[in-house]
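Checklist before submission:
- one chain only
- standard amino acids only
- sequence pasted in full

Submission:
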Amino acid sequence: MPDFPTKKIKINQNDDVFITELDQYLLQPRDVTAFLELIDNDKIISEFMKKDSCWKFIDKYTIAIIFTYFKRCKFTLIEYTRKNFFGCFYLAHDMEEDNEEWKYEIFPWVLGKNWDRHMKEFVKFKDTLLARLNYNTLVCLGSCMEILNSMRDHPVTKRERPAHHATTSEPQLKNNQQFVPRGPGRSPILCSACEEYGTMKRSEDSIFDSTCDDFFDNSLLNKQLSPFSDLSPSF
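Returned file contents:
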């Protein structure tokens, strides 16, 4: 196999990583594995996805777009992190979703209990990611399908958004409730359409569980997430 030119990338103030130009663009199995391991092993990401009752916040196509952004940002494996996942997730919602409110659920998960104090810093971080993407946020369906095929044995590819959440005419929340970010330990508000269509399946390991408030040690969570230093760009 021929040698490919290398490029030095600074990932923080102290460390440089040398990668080949080939690594930046091809769909590498190691990248897919690292991405799926991040989803499975990061407590906050995995619980966010479990609490996404209707798969309306993060369905399989959103996953594919986030991974595409990881590749376009030319992240090294050390940059496959929670902060970059949620940053790219926010950008994906900016680009693809009609419902502006859904993306706000991200804030308490990545910024902790006092998330409203850190929103400006998160927006700056998001803009840094956008620049690293070279403002190229469009992802075609064919690319999504290719990525999902590479992940076909993982449960994320089964996250099919219900039809009543796939249109611009989004069902109203039950009892005209206003959307408010709920954060860890609480499932998103159950909408009347999901009750009607039976989307929600309640079981002892249900993602919509009235006892889930005790699932997290919220004091530990806030200790881990409130300092925004963990979310500042590492590049």
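Reviewer check: The chain has ten helices and two strands.
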